[in-house]
Write a structure and sequence with these properties.
The chain has 400 residues and is an alpha/beta fold. Helices cover 41% and strands 22% of the residues. The strands form four sheets. The chain has a six-stranded mixed sheet, covered by helices on one side.
Length: 400
């Protein structure tokens, strides 16, 4: 029998714990400072691991033992990334600001990151609208919602299965909204994640947003715990005036549906004197103070038909861009650098040629709001460690 959460209540009665003792808050605050100090370097190391492992895997045929070993390396790297993200999430002392965003890009970034990290027994399918999707939100949080829901689905399919991800624009008369009469009248972004996993009964569904809730299922000798993923999803969605519903059938699978209110589209403004984009090979200015990162980026970009000019010194990169402001289709820069910050470099590049999009890479993505980075002239932000597919998808989206 289908188990569905009622429309007059949040999905599940389990209310995420909101209060903590003063001592716990102080401890998390101190932990956040410590983690913040090491996050930049740690995520640089993870970026190198992900990048070189993915490049090596692309040269090894399926079924080879070496490829399997490298997949285990990526899985271990993902665990390290999730651990840092989890600590940062609970030690974050300031709420992320929400602003008008096109939710399509962070959803695509999340899917590109996930598709090469799915177990071989799990198929990831996507149906994403081609239209811009303007909602009040935060790129980092939207990406986190998609990744957490998909990871939850993977855990529910120990024998494998299929995950379907859809992103749709719904006007106020859409048939999909008729099934949720509690939703206020208006247009919505609909994010739908469906799996063919074990499904849930009503008792389980009542607690899925409770931190560290466990169903006591066993995978091998390990107990399966819900962790913090669905708690985080619930908090992100509801903080953006959104709604989340879950529909599940034991033995058949689970579907999560998220509805975020659409914002009226802003008039597209084209900068005066905009020059046409290059239609052939795209030209990238890439800046990172870590030589190992630029060396890796050089290989990635060359292997994917990009022309790249790379710098480890931000001031040198800025001078070169100032001397050749029309020689590049996109700029990619790290945030924290010794000679000049990525935010200042982005601002000055945008002043020199506002038609060239700027991508900011950083290990502190969860602490930077779109309002802040757009004031710097940055088009989008990629949180380190990032995958090759995530970088390439961002470049393709911004230079098309």
């Amino acid at each position: 029998m289908t188990q569905k959460t009622p429309d007059n209540m949040p999905a599940g009665n389990g209310k995420p714990k909101a209060d903590a003792s003063v001592q716990q808050d102080q401890a998390l605050d101190s932990l956040g400072i410590v983690v913040g100090e090491i996050a930049h370097d740690f995520n640089n190391v993870l970026s190198l691991i992900f990048g070189y492992v993915e490049m090596a895997m692309s040269e090894i045929p399926e079924g080879e033992r070496a490829r399997s070993d490298l997949e285990h390396v990526l899985a271990a790297g993902d665990r390290a990334k999730e651990l840092v993200a989890r600590i940062l999430t609970f030690s974050n002392r300031a709420k992320l600001k929400k602003t008008r965003i096109n939710a399509r890009l962070p959803v695509l970034n999340a899917l590109n990151y996930l598709k090469d990290r799915m177990p071989p027994t799990v198929a990831l399918k996507a149906k994403i609208t081609d239209q811009a999707v303007s909602v009040l939100g935060n790129d980092t949080e939207i990406q986190q919602v998609v990744m957490n829901l998909c990871n939850n689905s993977v855990q529910a399919m120990p024998q494998g299965g299929t995950i379907e991800v859809e992103l749709n624009l719904l006007d106020e008369n859409a048939a999909a909204l008729a099934g949720h009469p509690s939703l206020p009248k208006g247009g919505y972004l609909q994010l739908r994640v469906k799996d063919t996993g074990t499904g849930m009964d009503l008792a389980t569904m009542a607690n899925i947003y409770t931190p560290f809730f466990t169903t006591s299922r066993q995978q091998g000798k390990q107990e399966v715990r819900a962790g913090l993923g669905l708690t985080t999803v619930y908090n992100i969605v509801t903080s953006g005036n959104g709604h989340i519903f879950v529909d599940s059938v034991v033995g058949e699978g689970t579907t999560f549906e998220i509805y975020l209110p659409l914002l009226a589209e802003a008039q597209a403004a084209k900068a005066p004197g905009a020059s046409p984009r290059a239609t052939a090979t795209k030209r990238v200015l890439f800046i990172d103070d870590e030589p190992a990162i630029t060396e890796m980026a050089s290989q990635i970009l060359k292997n994917n038909n990009y022309q790249a000019r790379l710098f480890n010194d931000g001031n040198e990169a800025l001078k070169h861009f100032s001397d050749h402001p029309h020689d590049f289709d996109i700029v990619v820069t790290d945030l924290i650098m010794p000679s000049i910050s990525g935010s200042e470099l982005a601002t000055r590049c945008a002043a020199i040629n506002p038609n060239v999009p700027v991508v900011l890479t950083t290990g502190f993505g969860e602490r930077i709001s779109p309002t802040s980075y757009r004031q710097w002239g940055v088009s989008t932000l990629i949180t380190k460690p990032f995958s090759i597919q995530q970088l390439l998808a961002t470049l393709a989206e911004l230079t098309k």
